Amino acid sequence: MQGAGPPGGHNPFGGPGANPFNAYQVDTTAQFADEVVPAVPQQPAGPPGGAFAPQGAWGGAGAAGAWGGSPQQPAQGSFGPQHVNLQFTDTTAQQYVSGTMGRGEERQNLVHHGAGSTDPGASSSVPGGMPFPQQQQQPYSAGDGAPSGGMPGAGGERGHREDYTKYPFYNVRRYREYFDVDTTDVLWRVGNSMIGVFRPNFMEVTMKNPDLYGPFWAATTLIFITAVAGNFVSWLAWRKNNSISPPPPPILPSPSPSNLSPSPSPALADSAGSELANVGRLLLSKMAQDQWFTDYTKLATSAAIFYGYIFIVGLIVWGVVKWFRGELKLVNVFCIYGYCLTVYVPVSIACVVPINWLQWLLVMLATALGAGFLFMNFKNTIYSAAPAKAVPVLLAIVLAHIALGLGLKLYFFQY
Amino acid sequence: MWPFRGGNANNGAQAAAPGPELFQDVPQVPGTSQYVPQSPPPTLASSTATAAPPAIPDEYTLDESIWKTIWRDIVTIGRNLRSVLIPVNWKFHGQAQALRNWDLWGPLVFMLVLAIVLSLGEANASAVFAMVFAEVALGAIVLTINVILLGGELVFFQAVCLLGYCLFPLVVAAIICASIANKWIRCLVTLGCLAWASVATIPFIGNAVPRGRKMLAVYPVMLMYVSLAWLAMVKT
Questions:
Q1: Is residue A271 part of a domain?
Q2: Do A129 and A53 have their domain in common?
Q3: Residue A188 resides in a domain
Q4: Average pLDDT for A88-94
Q5: Domain ranges of chain B
Q6: Does B46 touch chain A (CB under 8 A)?
Q7: Residue A82, Cβ neighbours under 10 Å: how many?
Q8: How far, rounded to the nearest angstrom, does the alpha carbon of residue A269 sit from its chain's CA centroid?
């Protein structure tokens, strides 16, 4: 809140008495959630006083409206968790905290924050720019601590789910539906995508709650890892070249990928003498150093290939299934295609080892796993959609994946 | 200056009748470290302050000198930098509190410096510059959207601001690595700066999302920082 001073703290804009929040009449010494408004409305305001008259009802006696009258009706029964629905208003974003907070939990939170815990993240969330992350249990609040039911990778099945369709299409929050997974869900999906040939239940588990988190970050991870690994290998080659290459004339264009662009400097140096040769060697080594970063086209191509494989091939598969009037959501297809790329992450790291047959073995193994994963998971859907054409469609899916694997081996994991 | 400054932009509606808060981010004594930037609203702690605020601030920004304006921005950057990157001494006014007063000047400066340092002396400097700058700028935006999509509630520009300020250790690492040839020192410096950036970022990002998803929110941040640190480390 702009210009408000901490209790007893240092207020740069006025004396100890200059608290524009006086107008709120907030009883900040209260102990429980139904007695205190945990955050004052975040409206940077005009002159304190009359402008805040409506909000003044938030504090004190007017709190009944905000809490649904629960303090007034103790006879209604439960001393258990009361439903608290708070709306934080900030001028930059709307923030909501909706959840069920019991008394004990609330007291813990009070103690936690009041003690000024040393965890910077925990305490930093209090002053009001952020809502309370510990209490914020957004997509599902009731089952947050409870063990999740059902399959481990299913996700989004616990508690109540927020209705994301209340947001307009241009609001990012509308697409939370596709990111409604937990860490355990994502780990399960990644693991299942690697052993999918043997336990083909990925499609069933993720049918209700497909996510786009995995596909996006799997592809992005692959892009970064291929770039960094390629960088690393050419750095090793450069160091080897530098330390091995004998001094003056014989600067042979080495077969390493770091010398893709043989500079004309050796020839020039030979003709012009040793000084020029030194310059040429410097230039060449400089060029070799700089070769680390020259695979930008490679970076762009890898982005195009990984994102494009998920998006375009997924779109085609979805279109084909739809053509046969099958039941399949586009997000499911993206999800499955994205997760089938995760198996390449360890492979792309392992391909740093410069043994060609090992690289081939690893890439082909990963491709076989991925293709099997796709095959087993698409089998039921496609057979039910188009029993007659199922074999060619599945074959096309597998062949496309094998083509991807070959392309990766021949172009990317070559380093 | 709207896209680059957080504090005053919030007051657009009240511009006709400027309250004292309009000038709240004007430090009265610029540059002194005693200055406590923004005080939190009295939320759960007790507050006993009672009096009327001063009616009119003594300082207007309209007719001040340009140097003063720039100095104020520099002070804001320094203050945000300190509160973002040294979160230990800020018990109650933590990162979030300082970030209420977010600005994008600092992230812009650090992104530019990082991209320039990493692209200095390269064969194709412009391509390196473009890639690094695009990575950090798009990365901050994508990471913020990622956190929001995972169910976290963040103020968009605050998070972009924080992620930009957390580039500062990497800028330090890049500059040191560009000037030191010893590879062990480079490794140590890079790892230290990476750890510093992570310590500053991870609580903020991790606490913004629901409990079971911290790893999902933190992992992309680490992906970006590790790749940037890698670029810094292999820089000659």
A1: no
A2: yes
A3: no
A4: 46
A5: 105-233
A6: yes
A7: 18
A8: 52
Pair A93, A211 in one domain? no
Nearest CA of chain B to the CA of A226: how many Å?
A: 11
Within this chain, do residues A215 and A308 fall inside the same structural domain, yes or no? yes
CA distance B158 to B106: 12
| Chain A residues within an 8 Å CB radius of B143 | none
CA A227 – CA A302 distance, rounded (Å): 9
Chain A residue at shortest CA distance from B59: A13
CB distance B148–A293 less than 8 Å? Answer: no
More confident call, B80 vs B133: B133
Is residue B15 within 8 angstroms of chain A, CB to CB?
A: no
User: What is chain A's mean pLDDT, rounded?
Assistant: 65
> pLDDT tens digits for A141-153?
333 333 344 456 6
Q: Which residue has the higher pLDDT, A90 or A139?
A: A90
Question: Does A269 or B193 have the greater pLDDT score?
Answer: B193
Q: What is the mean pLDDT of residues A25-47?
A: 44
- Cβ proximity of A41 and A58 under 8 Å: yes
Shared domain for A96 and A215, answered yes or no, is no
What tens digit of pLDDT does each residue of A251-299 get?
A: 444 444 444 444 444 444 444 455 555 655 555 555 555 545 555 667 7
Name the residue range of residue A380's domain.
203-224+295-412
For residues A121 and A30, state if they share a domain: yes
Q: Is residue A25 within 8 Å of residue A12, measured between CB atoms?
A: no
Contact B20 A3 (CB under 8 A): yes
> Crossing angle for the helix pair B156-165 and B183-208, nearest 10 degrees?
160
Highest mean pLDDT among A8-22, A42-56, A157-171, B124-138: B124-138
Total domains in the fold of chain A: 2
Q: Are residues A53 and A128 in the same domain?
A: yes
Is B138 in the A-facing interface, judged by CB distances under 8 Å? Answer: no
Find tokens 């808060």 and name the residue.
B21
Token look-up 């692959």 returns: A222
B29 pLDDT higher than 70: no
Please report the number of interchain residue pairs, chain A to chain B, with beta-carbon separation below 8 angstroms.
295
Tell me phi and psi for residue A259, to 5 degrees: -115, 45
Write out chain A residues lying below 8 Å of B204, CB-based: 121, 124
* Cβ–Cβ < 8 Å for B36, A10: yes
Q: What is the pLDDT of residues B199-228, one digit of tens each?
A: 888 888 888 888 888 899 999 999 999 988
pLDDT for residue B64? 79
Contact A258, A238 (CB under 8 A): yes
In a domain, A182, yes or no: no
Is residue A171 in a domain?
Answer: no
User: Which of A337, A331, A287, A284 lies closest to A310, judged by CA?
Assistant: A337
